[in-house]
């Protein structure tokens, strides 16, 4: 970790906890900052706040009191999930208080160079693949996954050395709070319509994603999905060397699929049929990772070895188990229609779809043709259940509505036939019934395991 003095005796407000907030507060204290943490959750039910208080950090819980900003803070480190419409954040902006997110702080202290990955879908899979490829047959240092993948970047940055590499998954929420973060390689997997309740409109969402390249120079690389025409225009905003990838073998792509093979700069890497993760979208994720790994000098044989054994990341079209002729997949990370659309096209077998979650006021209609083509029946729950019922009815697919996910799993199994896939792909955020998509996916896995034990 770099021994920086920028935060010595600097009054810093950490707004919002969770993993990233806790690690940011601890790091700031070690850097000599005068840290105050403010979290909306009540203290008695706030283990993170208790931990920080025990370490001598000032903690204010139970609300976000705007008057706290009268204390002349010099910086706010904001939890990415707190929107800029929050009164506390709006007041900080009015005061001209700099607002950053935890990855920016991590980058400032990091000795290791960064690779940064963003996109509407595929971020976690691509980040994980890159990390494994960079570590395959590595003789010096280590590549660490970090960021939105679930490991706070500041936690990793403290231990990573100049011989290491940080591969950071960055969300649009996190990217809005960076100023200096400068990846030597940036990746944009794709851009669809997502998080508009946070960003306001698509233009602001796209602008947030493009911040991943804003500090890059002509010595850096920007890996982009060339199958999306929008990327060709967005590429003009970057000073980095553009490295396109394309599943459709669009002209100019350096990583691409041609016939049954995946290539980089005319070098055969692996047959698409050898990938262990299903779906065309995962071919795109593999191509993005191949591009990064080859740019970093990883041998094609090492890249292929990783792809042959990689079976996916948890909660993203994750194979769970199979019994009585049914296969179960957990795609809890599909928090929008686009992500679920990808999952529905990933299987050859008929699907019993479990979907539902937080109603953000967005249309589900785009799912209808895919449901009609790929889904045998649906079980829906949560706030979006009425919208998903309408999708099923429009598609001519049987549908049953339940209240909770465990019940949905059991009903889906009862509806299913041997040879079918039972897929949790919610097409909505988890926050109506779960704190995060991970807990939703974990409950799905636990319910499936209990069901399997009963069926034996």
TrEMBL record:
Residues 315-427 form the Mur ligase C-terminal domain. Pathway: Cell wall biogenesis; peptidoglycan biosynthesis. It holds the Pfam family MurD-like_N. It comes from the Bacteria. ATP binds at residues 119-125. Belongs to the MurCDEF family. This is UDP-N-acetylmuramoylalanine--D-glutamate ligase. The lineage of its organism: Bacteria, Bacillati, Bacillota, Bacilli, Lactobacillales.
């Amino acid at each position: 970790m770099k021994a920086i003095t920028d935060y010595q005796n600097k009054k810093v407000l950490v707004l919002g906890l969770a993993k990233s907030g806790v690690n940011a507060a601890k790091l700031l204290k070690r850097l000599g900052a005068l840290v105050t943490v403010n979290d909306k959750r009540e203290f008695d039910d706030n283990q993170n706040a208790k931990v920080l208080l025990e370490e001598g950090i000032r903690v204010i819980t139970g609300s976000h009191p705007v008057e706290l900003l009268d204390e002349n803070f010099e910086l706010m480190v904001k939890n990415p999930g707190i929107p800029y419409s929050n009164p506390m954040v709006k007041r900080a902006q009015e005061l001209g208080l700099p607002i950053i997110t935890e990855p920016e702080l991590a980058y400032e202290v990091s000795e290791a160079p960064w690779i940064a990955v963003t996109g509407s879908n595929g971020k976690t899979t691509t980040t994980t693949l890159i990390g494994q490829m960079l570590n395959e047959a590595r003789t010096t240092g280590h590549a660490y996954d970090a960021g939105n993948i679930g490991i706070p970047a500041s936690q990793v940055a403290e231990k990573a050395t100049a011989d290491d590499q940080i591969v950071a998954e960055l969300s649009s929420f996190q990217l809005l709070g960076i100023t200096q973060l400068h990846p030597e390689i940036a990746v944009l997997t794709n851009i669809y319509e997502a998080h508009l309740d946070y960003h306001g409109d698509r233009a602001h969402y796209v602008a947030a994603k493009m911040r991943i390249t804003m500090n890059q120079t002509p010595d850096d690389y920007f890996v982009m999905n060339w199958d999306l025409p929008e990327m060709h225009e967005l590429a003009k905003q970057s000073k980095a060397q553009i490295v396109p990838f394309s599943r459709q073998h669009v002209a100019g792509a350096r990583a691409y699929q041609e016939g049954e093979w995946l290539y980089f700069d005319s070098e055969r890497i692996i047959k698409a049929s050898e990938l262990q993760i299903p779906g065309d979208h995962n071919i795109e994720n593999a191509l993005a990772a191949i591009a990064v790994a080859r740019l970093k000098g990883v041998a094609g044989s090492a890249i292929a070895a990783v792809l042959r054994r990689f079976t996916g990341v948890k909660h993203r079209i994750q194979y769970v188990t199979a019994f009585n002729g049914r296969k179960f997949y957990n795609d809890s990370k599909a928090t929008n229609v686009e992500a679920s659309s990808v999952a529905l096209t990933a299987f050859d077998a008929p699907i019993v779809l479990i979907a539902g979650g937080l109603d953000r006021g967005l249309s589900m209609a785009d799912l209808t043709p895919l449901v009609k083509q790929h889904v045998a029946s649906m079980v829906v729950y949560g706030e979006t259940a009425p919208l998903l019922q309408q999708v099923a009815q429009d598609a001519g697919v049987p549908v049953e509505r339940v209240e909770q996910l465990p019940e949905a799993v059991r009903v889906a199994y009862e509806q299913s036939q041997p040879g079918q896939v039972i897929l949790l792909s919610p097409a909505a955020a988890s926050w109506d019934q779960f704190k995060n998509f991970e807990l939703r996916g974990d409950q799905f896995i636990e319910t499936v395991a209990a069901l399997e034990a009963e069926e034996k």
